[in-house]
Amino acid sequence: MEKTWICTEDILCGVNEPKDKASPTELEKKHIPVIEAPDRVKKDEPFEVRIEVGKLLAHPNEPGHFIEWIELYCGDTFLGHANFSGGASFPKASFTVKLSHAHGPLKVWDKCNLHGLWETTKEIKVE
Ligand SMILES: [Fe+2]
Protein backbone atom coordinates (compact mmCIF):
# COMPACT_ATOMS: atom_id res chain seq x y z
CA MET A 1 0.00 0.00 0.00
CA GLU A 2 1.40 3.37 -1.01
CA LYS A 3 1.78 5.99 1.68
CA THR A 4 0.37 9.39 0.87
CA TRP A 5 2.08 12.38 2.50
CA ILE A 6 -0.22 15.19 3.45
CA CYS A 7 2.15 17.58 5.16
CA THR A 8 -0.47 19.62 6.99
CA GLU A 9 -1.74 16.42 8.67
CA ASP A 10 1.76 15.19 9.67
CA ILE A 11 2.75 16.16 13.20
CA LEU A 12 6.46 15.64 12.35
CA CYS A 13 6.31 18.06 9.41
CA GLY A 14 6.89 21.70 10.28
CA VAL A 15 6.16 23.42 13.61
CA ASN A 16 3.03 22.61 15.59
CA GLU A 17 0.77 25.07 17.40
CA PRO A 18 -2.69 24.54 18.87
CA LYS A 19 -5.29 24.60 16.11
CA ASP A 20 -7.69 26.40 18.48
CA LYS A 21 -5.64 28.38 21.02
CA ALA A 22 -8.71 28.91 23.23
CA SER A 23 -9.29 25.17 23.48
CA PRO A 24 -6.11 23.11 23.00
CA THR A 25 -6.36 19.32 22.74
CA GLU A 26 -4.67 17.04 25.31
CA LEU A 27 -1.82 16.37 22.85
CA GLU A 28 -1.35 20.11 22.34
CA LYS A 29 -1.46 20.85 26.11
CA LYS A 30 1.32 18.27 26.68
CA HIS A 31 3.63 19.82 24.08
CA ILE A 32 3.16 23.58 23.85
CA PRO A 33 5.78 25.51 25.79
CA VAL A 34 4.52 27.98 28.38
CA ILE A 35 6.47 31.26 28.52
CA GLU A 36 6.67 33.47 31.60
CA ALA A 37 8.29 36.82 30.80
CA PRO A 38 7.53 40.51 31.27
CA ASP A 39 5.27 42.26 28.74
CA ARG A 40 7.67 45.23 28.67
CA VAL A 41 11.42 45.44 29.31
CA LYS A 42 13.97 48.23 29.33
CA LYS A 43 16.55 48.35 26.55
CA ASP A 44 19.77 46.49 27.51
CA GLU A 45 18.48 45.56 31.00
CA PRO A 46 18.61 41.84 31.86
CA PHE A 47 15.33 40.05 32.50
CA GLU A 48 14.30 36.46 33.07
CA VAL A 49 12.36 34.22 30.70
CA ARG A 50 11.04 31.01 32.25
CA ILE A 51 9.83 28.21 30.01
CA GLU A 52 8.08 24.98 30.88
CA VAL A 53 6.72 22.19 28.69
CA GLY A 54 3.94 20.11 30.23
CA LYS A 55 2.76 22.87 32.54
CA LEU A 56 -0.77 22.68 31.10
CA LEU A 57 -0.78 18.86 31.14
CA ALA A 58 2.19 16.70 32.13
CA HIS A 59 4.22 15.31 29.23
CA PRO A 60 5.82 11.83 29.64
CA ASN A 61 9.42 12.03 30.84
CA GLU A 62 11.06 8.66 30.22
CA PRO A 63 13.83 7.41 27.91
CA GLY A 64 11.36 6.37 25.17
CA HIS A 65 9.29 9.55 25.19
CA PHE A 66 10.54 12.92 26.37
CA ILE A 67 11.16 16.54 25.48
CA GLU A 68 14.63 16.64 23.93
CA TRP A 69 15.27 20.37 24.00
CA ILE A 70 13.89 23.89 24.31
CA GLU A 71 15.09 26.91 22.30
CA LEU A 72 14.36 30.58 22.91
CA TYR A 73 14.33 33.24 20.19
CA CYS A 74 13.27 36.86 19.93
CA GLY A 75 11.82 36.98 16.44
CA ASP A 76 14.40 34.98 14.48
CA THR A 77 17.29 35.94 16.79
CA PHE A 78 18.55 32.92 18.74
CA LEU A 79 18.86 33.52 22.51
CA GLY A 80 19.31 30.13 24.19
CA HIS A 81 19.05 26.34 24.13
CA ALA A 82 18.57 23.70 26.85
CA ASN A 83 18.88 19.89 26.43
CA PHE A 84 17.07 17.23 28.46
CA SER A 85 17.89 13.57 28.97
CA GLY A 86 14.48 11.94 29.37
CA GLY A 87 13.74 10.69 32.86
CA ALA A 88 16.40 12.49 34.86
CA SER A 89 15.81 16.10 33.88
CA PHE A 90 12.58 18.02 33.41
CA PRO A 91 11.67 20.26 30.45
CA LYS A 92 11.98 23.55 32.28
CA ALA A 93 14.47 26.28 31.51
CA SER A 94 15.23 29.78 32.67
CA PHE A 95 17.23 32.26 30.60
CA THR A 96 18.46 35.69 31.61
CA VAL A 97 18.54 37.82 28.48
CA LYS A 98 18.73 41.45 27.44
CA LEU A 99 17.46 43.05 24.27
CA SER A 100 18.75 46.19 22.59
CA HIS A 101 15.66 46.47 20.39
CA ALA A 102 12.57 44.53 19.47
CA HIS A 103 13.42 41.70 17.09
CA GLY A 104 9.84 40.42 17.16
CA PRO A 105 7.92 38.40 19.75
CA LEU A 106 9.63 35.97 22.12
CA LYS A 107 9.42 32.57 20.46
CA VAL A 108 10.01 29.17 22.02
CA TRP A 109 10.37 25.87 20.21
CA ASP A 110 10.47 22.53 21.97
CA LYS A 111 11.15 19.14 20.44
CA CYS A 112 9.47 15.92 21.56
CA ASN A 113 11.31 12.79 20.41
CA LEU A 114 8.00 11.30 19.20
CA HIS A 115 5.78 14.29 18.42
CA GLY A 116 8.05 16.83 16.75
CA LEU A 117 8.43 20.58 17.07
CA TRP A 118 6.05 22.85 19.02
CA GLU A 119 5.94 26.63 19.22
CA THR A 120 4.60 29.37 21.47
CA THR A 121 5.14 33.10 21.02
CA LYS A 122 4.73 36.01 23.43
CA GLU A 123 4.72 39.66 22.52
CA ILE A 124 7.31 41.80 24.31
CA LYS A 125 8.02 45.52 24.07
CA VAL A 126 11.54 46.96 24.44
CA GLU A 127 11.47 50.55 25.72
FE1 LIG B 1 5.36 13.78 23.11
Describe this structure in words.
This protein has 127 residues and is mostly beta strands. It has one domain (7-126): SOR catalytic domain (Immunoglobulin-like, Sandwich). Helix content is 5%, strand content 41%. It contains one helix and ten strands. The strands form three sheets. The protein has a five-stranded mixed beta sheet with strand order 1-9-8-5-6, with no helix packed on it. Strands 2-4-7 form a three-stranded antiparallel beta sheet, with no helix packed on it. The protein is globular, with a radius of gyration of 16 Å. The termini are far apart. The model has no long low-confidence stretch (mean pLDDT 92). The structure holds fe (ii) ion. Fe (ii) ion binds at residues 31, 59, 65, 112, 114-115. The site of fe (ii) ion (FE2) has 6 residues, from loops.
Question: Summary?
Answer:
The chain is 5% helix and 41% strand. By secondary structure, the protein is mostly beta strands.
How does the SSE layout of this entry go?
Blueprint lengths: L14 E2 L9 H6 L1 E4 L3 E2 L5 E7 L13 E8 L2 E7 L8 E6 L8 E7 L3 E7 L2 E2 L1
Parallel strand pairs: 1-9, 3-10
Antiparallel strand pairs: 2-4, 4-7, 5-6, 5-8, 8-9
Fe (ii) ion binds next to loops.
